[in-house]
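In this notebook, the sequence line spells out the residues, with the fold written below as integer tokens. This is how one looks.
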Amino acid sequence: MPQRGPGPAPAPAPADAERAASVRAITEQLAGVRGPLLPVLHEVVATHGYVHDDDVPVVADVLNLSRADVLGVLSFYHDFRRTPPAAHRVSLCRAEACQARGAEATVAAASDRFGGSTAVEVGEVFCLGNCALGPSGTLDGALHGRLTPERLDALTEGWEA
């Protein structure tokens, strides 16, 4: 049956050809694994820090998926960043055990201190498995327990606010 209409629009050329080549190589390397899209996106984040909009058509092309399929997975899972990461990340536990031990004050202090910062990203997690030492959180990936606003300030001293 003949195709009607012009067909799908070609993907625009990526702004960063070197990055596009890297993303293509990652995708081609993982294309043979079962269900390759998630491993590909994880590897792009591990390699480049985030998945740029220009990466989507490259991944879609190699895996023979629509851009909508890639974007759907990318937007569904919170593990995939779509923007460059901040220099520092504070992730504070909001689960019941940490809340019972006073996490709200530390969350409020972090939000007040870093709320408008582009250098520090503040996020929440729901249980780090460190309940006995709550409130808990991670600072640039390192786990810390018994966090208070004062301890948070001490641990992040020198971080641009």
User: Anything to note?
Assistant: The first helix runs from residue 17 to 30. The CA atoms of residues 10 and 57 lie 9 Å apart.
